[in-house]
Amino acid sequence: xxIVWTVPRGISPTLLVAPxxxxxxxxxxxxxxxxxxAVGIVCASLEKxxxxxxxxxxxxxxxxxxxAAASTSVPDxxxxxxxxxxxxxxxxxxPAPQPFSEKVGKRLGEYVFALRDPRNNQVxxxxxxxxxxxxxxxxxxxxxxDNLEGASGPTETPGVTAAKISRIREIYDAGSAVEHxxxxxxxxxxxxxxxxxxxxSGIVEALRISEAGDTLTNLAGEVTDKDLRATRVEExxxxxxxxxAPELPTPSVVLHVPGSxxxxxxxxxxxxxxxAEWAAxxxxxxxxxxxxxVFADSIIRGAFRAQSxxxxxxxxxxxxxxxxxxxxxxxxxxxxxxxxxxxxxxGLKKWPVSGWVTRLTTARPGAAMPGPRKK
Length: 375
Prior knowledge:
This protein is of the alpha+beta class. The chain folds into three domains: about 90 residues, no CATH class; about 140 residues, no CATH class; about 120 residues, no CATH class. The chain is built from 13 helices and 13 strands. The protein has a five-stranded antiparallel sheet. Strands 12-11-10-9-13 form a five-stranded mixed sheet. Strands 2-1-3 form a three-stranded antiparallel sheet. Strand 11 and strand 12 form a beta hairpin. The longest helix is centred in the first third of the chain and has 16 residues. It is globular.
């Protein structure tokens, strides 16, 4: 258990609504204008420290109350209120990441990765390697050296290693955890993409996951190939270790819901996402309790049963869009969630743009129907 002082993103609006700061503005010494001016000076100083965590009050105070914020126009009462507002008691350190399985490591091949600081969304290190190299720096920083087995990457200068380890320890001291992304995978060998294109792609994906990506024109539009996107390592491990989905239930509905792959999404949240408007036909709506399987990036994320349907939109051409109401089905979830699904599972060559697929019969689409028996 330790106390740290962290300057989060959006510190200025956070500070202005903090009880201690509101108390200072209402009852502090001096005029209201002088108190507002002092708070403004402190906010400007704090904005320069966003994302930093301090493990001692002296180091935090020295960094925050420097320059203009060091002047006598910032009273001690405000300094104390700011330090108390920024303080956090870290009870339990976030756990180190789980190493890749051998299966996942083999599928990744040699890859390019990025480490991101969740406190300010800054990418603070980019590297390459194989196996568990993406985690190696965190394992080293946290003293979990036994997990370094299977990690392989280039040698770094002592300065780079020291700066990286220091940043990682600061993140964990703040009660947060490093976010790991794979930017490019299989970057060597016969199937590797062209070097120049791969470099550009890697840079773009590194910027995509940082705040710098907000204005990058390369990110206009949608990247449809999931293997070209920067991906959290937890998600990659799920995809690369997933078993093929068992035979799908008949009848059933399969829905492509991209948002269902969001990290940490609960079954209830996925259910709400899946209740988007769909062009559900009469045959589907007539099946009480029809299974609904939700997938994203080839992985089934949720399993439900639709108990009823209601019209949500009536189009000018007379067609209608429907929403379903149903329940999470634990038995279906245990069987299907986390497994890999492909268009082949429903007899298709590719997924339809609509994201809506029905499976009302075991007959494959396009299969020849039996003709009349010859006499």
